[in-house]
Specification:
- It is elongated, with a radius of gyration of 23 Å.
- It is an alpha+beta fold.
- It is built from four helices and four strands; from the N terminus they run αααββββα.
- InterPro entries: EGD2/NACA0like, NAC_A/B_dom_sf, Nas_poly-pep-assoc_cplx_dom.
- This is Nascent polypeptide associated complex alpha chain.
């Protein structure tokens, strides 16, 4: 069986119809990114055809995988697919362990409350 919906390599690489709209130019050449890989450029060209709209004023996206593990994407570009609640997120995702972050935050707050006083514990043998 041959699927007619599969795009050929020529259709993916043609950019004449993709770059007509100003908003599409922002997707293909974002202002805050310096260099894109070849795969990312191809993915963006395919996403332009979906009719994405940029979501303004988004600075950070946090994706919760489980109770203890999250993915934080900072310096993010977010686009929404019209007519749905689907979003496309471009950025560098970093994993973060919530329990480790909480313990570090509590330790810093304790030092801050004590006025910078550092206490050293020694072991008595």
């Amino acid at each position: 069986m041959h699927d007619d919906r599969v795009n050929s390599k020529d259709e993916i690489s043609s950019s004449s119809s993709c770059e007509e709209n100003d908003e599409n130019k922002n997707i293909l050449n974002p202002p805050n990114r310096t260099k894109m890989s070849k795969g990312e450029r191809r993915a963006r060209k395919m996403l332009v055809k979906l009719g994405l709209k940029a979501v303004p004023n988004v600075h950070k996206v946090i994706i919760k995988k489980s109770q203890k593990m999250i993915f934080a994407v900072s310096n993010v570009e977010v686009y929404k697919v019209e007519g749905t609640e689907s979003y496309v997120i471009f950025g560098d995702a970093k994993t973060d362990d919530i329990t480790n972050s909480i313990n570090t935050h509590l330790a810093n707050k304790t030092v801050e409350l004590l006025g910078g006083l550092r206490v050293a514990f020694t072991r008595a043998d």
